[in-house]
Amino acid sequence: MIAAGFVSYLRQVAEGTGITGLSRDVDWGIYIAQFTFLVGVAASAVMVALPYCLYDCTPFARITILGELLAVAAVIMCIYPKP
């Protein structure tokens, strides 16, 4: 999966954003807005998990797993190429 992503990235660098459909201003703006939003979601999910991981705060034990899964899902959505 990483190799396929890297090959797609190299193709985009060589041919430009036209192959991703981001050659128009509106499409590019939506892509950047979605990317920024998902980076914020991943960061907030990590902040939910930090009290349990760093300070062993047991009230956060159950929500920590959900926060970590949400962070992983948001990062995957950030790196997945948009059509």
Structural commentary:
It is a single chain. This protein is mainly α and 83 residues long. The protein has one domain (2-79). The chain has helices at residues 2-15, 25-55, 61-79.
Topology (SSEs and partners):
Layout: H1 2-15, H2 25-55, H3 61-79
Helix pairs in contact: 2-3
Summarize the structure.
The protein has 83 residues and is mainly α. The chain has one domain (2-79).
Rg over C-alpha atoms, rounded to the nearest angstrom = 17 Å
Tell me the domain tally: 1
Counting DSSP E segments of at least 2 residues, the number of strands comes to 0
Which regions contain 5 or more consecutive residues with pLDDT less than 50? none
Strand content: under 5%
Please trace the helix and strand order, writing H or E for each element. Answer: HHH
Report the end-to-end length measured between terminal Cα atoms: 17 Å
What's the overall average pLDDT, rounded?
79
Main beta sheet strand tally, sense and closure: none
Kindly name the structural category: mainly alpha
Query: Rough shape?
Result: elongated
Q: Provide a count of the helices.
A: 3
Helical content band: over 70%
